[in-house]
Amino acid sequence: MITGGSQGVGKALGEMLASLGYNVVVAARQQERLEAAAQGCQRRATRPDSLATAIPCDITQPAQVTMLAEKVFDTYQQVTLVVNNAGVCMRGDWNLCTLQDYQVRMSSRG
Fold first, then answer.
1. Which residues have C-beta within 8 Å of that of residue 68, sequence separation ≥ 6?
2. Over the Cα atoms of the chain, what is R_g?
3. What is the pTM of this model?
């Protein structure tokens, strides 16, 4: 299961894990990107019975995280690996970051 799995490092990691034979769950907020990421994982799967599942989830919302966990366990009955990759990128000089900038980045709500 990979949070932040719809793009960038999370998407690439999902595809790599699929190529190594893992079933992959990608979770993120943006449904369209999420579906595309799951399809990319499925294309790279090495086992004919491999699954790649897209589950929309905003990890800053506890009810959505609970729903994510329930769906993962309903589908796979276990979790072998969790990658907490969700977050936002901050560009610019770190020393110019305000407290509010920092709090937004750390809460993954950018």
1. 1, 27, 55, 57
2. 15
3. 0.81
The residues spanned by each domain of the chain are 2-106
Round to whole Å and give the CA distance between 31 and 64: 14
For the cut 50, the answer to whether the pLDDT of residue 4 exceeds it is yes
Cβ count within 10 A of residue 22: 19
**DSSP code string of 40-56:** HHHHH-SSTT--EEEEE
**In this structure, are residues 55 and 73 in contact, taking their beta carbons and an 8 Å threshold?**
no
pLDDT, tens only, 31-70: 999 999 999 999 999 999 999 999 999 988 899 999 999 9
Q: Which residue has the tokens 């329930």?
A: 70
CATH number, domain 2-106: 3.40.50.720
